[in-house]
Amino acid sequence: MIRPGSRSVSAARRRAALAVGALLMVACGAFRREPLDVPPGHAVVLGEIFINGFATPHLTLDLSREDGGFQEQLPIDTMRSPIVMTLPPGHYLINNLRINEQRATGPETTNFRITVKFDVGAPVVYIGTLQIERVAFLRQLRVTVKDEYERFVPAIREQYPELPAEIARSLAEPG
After folding, report:
1. Cβ–Cβ contacts within 10 Å for residue 44, how many?
2. Distance in angstroms (rounded) separating the CA atoms of residues 89 and 166
3. Among 93, 106, 125, 160, which residue's CB has the most CB atoms within a 10 Å radius?
4. Which of 38, 33, 35 is nearest to 122 (CA)?
5. Which residues make beta-bridge pairs with 112?
6. Which of 119, 112, 20 has its CA nearest to residue 62?
7. Are the beta carbons of 110 and 97 closer than 8 angstroms?
8. pLDDT for 86-141, tens place per residue?
């Protein structure tokens, strides 16, 4: 038995479901990550930064190629941040970590000198998980590198399926 108005209710529900479905498709497309853009002469560098002991997770690592021909700033916004970046081949040095304790822009930054070296030679390199820990009550950092290739690479492949099958290990070395 068909009740009066049930067809219009059913049609309205179908239209609402279609509208929600269309919105979800648009939203998924809006949040989909862009394909990895590798400039000519650059390699893909993969890894992770894990920080501990800082009042804010908003940090910046300064890195440069050993010959001084290329410099880059690597922003960190969470306690565990993946690294997916492109760099020209060469020997690199991470030499400075900058933080802003006041969480504001301006001259109130704090700098920590660090030394971490890594090489970029293969088309895609994994440099490891760089762990940076602030030693309590001192202006010192403890820096270690862990090889978490088996955990990290499959996880990053889910986000970047276009990565080649071979990803070279080129673990960073704290100095």
Report:
1. 22
2. 17
3. 125
4. 38
5. 97
6. 112
7. no
8. 999 999 999 999 985 555 555 556 889 999 999 999 999 999 999 999 887 667 89
